[in-house]
Amino acid sequence: MSIRSVIDATTEAVGADPANAQATVQAQGHLVGPTEVALRSGRHSITVDEPAALGGEDAGASPVNYALVSLASCQAITYRFWAEQLGIALDDVEVKVEADLDLRGFFGLDDDVRAGFGEVRVQVTPKGPESPERYEELARTVDEHCPVLDLFANATPVSTTVAVPAPAA
Question: Does any domain span residue 10?
Answer without folding.
Answer: no
